[in-house]
Amino acid sequence: MSQTILSLNSVNIYQEGNKILSDINLKVSPGEFLYIIGKTGSGKSSFMKTLYADLPLTHGEGTIVDYDLNGLVDDDIPFLRRRIGIVFQDFKLLPDRSVNNNMLFVLKATGWEDQGAMQDKIDEVLDKVGMKNLANKMPHQLSGGEQQRVAIARALLNDPELILADEPTGNLDPQTSMEVMEVLKKINQNGKTIIMATHDYALLMKYPSKTLKCEDGAIFEVVQRTV
């Protein structure tokens, strides 16, 4: 692994032919926690989608976990995403499977075969987010915060080098948002790199970290007190 998790040079981001963000230059090192903030429609989600190759990078140069975003072909994308954990706002858990079986589904889909090793890994990641005791529950039996903890655990299954969290507290009340942030910060303190898009400025005040802002087609670093 290189000393840079993410590198973007003179990148323009497009969605449906429209330029969303211009001239992005960014380097993210292993172990960083980086916020991406901005109003709805400012380009946060387009930025995140470009990082996990849901939107192609067509202008500028970019690498992420040693993958070249410019030259990425469809067959590479599943391998890229195994090295990136993705946490979404709406959890995206399979509703007809227990917590444990949601995890099992991901491991089988990414090539795991040993039943014992799979269960050990599931127990490990659920324990990290405080959900091991609810492994047999169905998603509808969990609160929003519990579902997001499960989603974070799922993102950790393949020991990713980077976690992309796109508005992970967007559907949660303030207290639950703080609890989810505590989980993410603990994971970061244990060495994982996290890039988190959010519009919740209260979280930035309580958990300050390097912050980039999307505004007027640009993305730039902001000093915490001016956010």
UniProtKB/TrEMBL annotation:
Matching CDD domains: ABC_MJ0796_LolCDE_FtsE
Q: Which GO terms describe its molecular function?
A: ATP binding; ATP hydrolysis activity; transmembrane transporter activity
Q: Which GO terms describe its biological process?
A: cell division
Domain ABC transporter: where? 6-227
GO CC terms, sorted = plasma membrane
Q: What's a Pfam family in this record?
A: ABC_tran
Q: Which domain of life is it from?
A: Bacteria
Question: What is the annotated signal peptide range for this record?
Answer: none
Entries under SMART domains matching the protein? AAA
InterPro entries, per database record? AAA+_ATPase, ABC_transporter-like_ATP-bd, ABC_transporter-like_CS, ABC_transpr_LolD-like, MacB-like_ATP-bd, P-loop_NTPase
The keyword Nucleotide-binding belongs to this UniProt entry's keyword annotation: yes
Keywords assigned by UniProt? ATP-binding, Cell cycle, Cell division, Nucleotide-binding, Transport
Record-stated family: Belongs to the ABC transporter superfamily.
Q: What does this protein do?
A: Part of the ABC transporter FtsEX involved in cellular division. Important for assembly or stability of the septal ring.
- The protein depicted here goes by the name Cell division ATP-binding protein FtsE
Source species of the chain: Flavobacterium terrae
